[in-house]
Amino acid sequence: MKRKRVLAAFLAAALAASCFAGCKGGEPSSSAAAKPGSAASSATSSGVSSNGEEGPVSKTGFPVMQEEHTFKIVHSISTGDLVGNWEDKDYTRKIEEDTGLKIEWVGIPQNSYNDQVGIQLAANDMPDVFWNGVPSFSQFVGNFTALDEYLADYSPTVVKFFQEYPSIKAASVFPDGALYGLPQVQMNNTRATGVYFINKDWLGNVGMQAPNTLDELYEVLKAFKEQDANGNGDPSDEIPFSFGKKETLTGLLAPFGIYGNGSPDNIDTPYLNVKDGKVTFYPIEDSYYQFLQYMNKLYREGLIDPNSFVQEEVDIQAKGKEGKVGTLWVGSYIDIMVGDRGDEYEYFLPLENAEGKRTYVPNKFSGDVNPNRFIVTKNCEYPAAMVRLYDYLNSSFENKLLFDWGPEGEAWEKTEDGKILRLNADLPEGFSSYAEVRHTLSMGVLGPILWDDADQAEFAITNDRDVEYYARRDPLMEYAIDDKDQIPVGQDTVENSQEAAVLITEIRTYMDNFQSEAIMKGIDDAKWQKHLEDVQKYDITRYVEIKQAFYDRMMELLGG
């Protein structure tokens, strides 16, 4: 019963805390500094820290700051967070109490985070830290503080991590040798995550199996539309296939020989492919023309959700939880997209191309790596204190577990052999998915946490959700492309990044419009030839040159 009451109790506590804060005019809480015996109360007034270090920032021990100072941190609020305001959460209060740091947490909804952060950067109205990165990072690098000089003294955790994972360090360091952001890493022992799922109950109702080819996919989607696949007596309420406006279509591009990491939603390398070490702009290749014709056929016959080109992932989730979607792309766990209907779905292998070959595009790392997730701006008076905050978050397995997954007994528990078991089989009352549990009770994937392979080994793989997730690994990786067929993660020069960003903005605007129109309205030889002429106006040759030079430099750096 304790777990069943957790959400109500949490919401009540959050409401009380926010009301209390409101009575004080909304100022950041100073409880950590005032509490007798707390880390903050031990600060001296001499300007010398309790561990003997000169200056306001202690290299070791707590409190971090020996002077009164409030730091402003901008963070993203997950769509799965049922509370939202981090000021009112137990884990942020623990951060402040343990470190003695006073923090003003400024949350931005996940769906508008990039847009709002972009406005702040343009207006030079920046916080001390961007907790979840910034869009077009390289363009704004002049606004950020180089952190490499602080690591040896203030973050032994990061120094050790980079020694163990030099490829992640390579992805984080700029050509000038400086490091302007600290990474978020979630090693999970599998690079096989994104895959198409299909409603197996619907397949049974129409007497079909999961598709292996593009033609079979078409036939399945057609049956979903015409044969009352959900069995409710209404043959018009099924959505055979749905995707979002920012979604990669890699799973459908791959059968046409387009499988690099240049999917349209990619921020840095949209519409690019790699073949035999050569970067290409695939929207001028015949294979892309064939892809557009196939997608138009699906759309023309009502097999694609007509809202796909305008909807967000949250819109697909709502439809999935209502049992309306037959086929959709899933980046990690199926229940994130369809809630408690996960058992109705199964993934299917990459579709075969015309020669019967399957091709899968895995993640570049085992898990997720975001090189510039924790960014200290030049508005921050004490960068070393924020580096110490980052180090504190990652300084122990226990800290990472709390801040990234939540409290024991509510989000996880220990098994008899000491493994960590996520409590995602029996959700607390009020939660519709484990993603909601995680992102309400902790920072979840929006925290700048470093999970390495050793950490991952501490988690038990026992429940159906995780068993299904890891069952994909070997079957999908059997068809994985070579790492050299993807543009690596890394940092380009500021000049190249800025030039590429201008080109990408224009190319993306044109290509996004062209692609959606071609899929919805159709494409023929005349329209294709006009496209081949029009797209040249956007200097795609220079765009490819910049990315080819970056690819070559990163391959040399990585020893490829």
Automatic annotation (TrEMBL):
Extract the Gene3D superfamilies matched here: Periplasmic binding protein-like II
What ranges does the record give for the region Disordered, renumbered to this chain? 30-61
Keyword Signal among UniProt keywords: yes
PROSITE patterns hit by this protein:
PROKAR_LIPOPROTEIN (PS51257)
| Keywords from the named record | Cell membrane, Lipoprotein, Membrane, Palmitate, Signal
Pfam families in the cross-refs: SBP_bac_1 (PF01547)
Spans of biased composition, class Low complexity? Answer: 30-50
Signal peptide interval:
1-21
Which residue ranges does UniProt annotate as crossing the membrane? none
Which superkingdom heads the taxonomic lineage of this protein's source?
Answer: Bacteria
> Entry's PANTHER family?
ARABINOSE-BINDING PROTEIN-RELATED, POLYGALACTURONAN_RHAMNOGALACTURONAN-BINDING PROTEIN YTCQ
Q: Under what name is this protein listed?
A: Extracellular solute-binding protein
Q: Which organism is it from?
A: Neglectibacter timonensis
